[in-house]
Amino acid sequence: MINTLTNKFFFSTIPRWATVDPYTLSAKKPHTIKNILDGRAYESKRSAPVVDPLNGETFIHVSMAEGTELDQFAESQRKVPTHGLHNPIRNVHRYNMYGDIFFKIAEQMRKPEVHNFFSKLTQRVMPKSWAQAVG
Fold first, then answer.
1. Domain definitions of the chain by residue range
2. Which residues, other chains included, contact 103 with Cβ-Cβ below 8 Å and sequence gap of 6+?
């Protein structure tokens, strides 16, 4: 949102579904990005750091599965059919479902708090001006 008196940006809310607050994200309040395994968030034993472009401190940790942990992911992939899931002739309902999902995403992005949330997330991991991040 823009304060019309000062033309400065201010942020008061983040979406209620957000798992990270890009406005307070820092080395003191880091975030861990987890993998998805069988539909659930999974934190690996090892993680890789992401450095804050503004000050060089680690402020995000990304789960990095390796070794025997990878067996779980390979087994999960074997459960997924190799054909037919996205075929619009065989699964018209899935085709329509994805259309509905993308419509809802576009609808949410029109909300200022959602739009600003993703713009700020972009800004936090790469040094960009507000106009560049919004673009």
1. 2-130
2. none
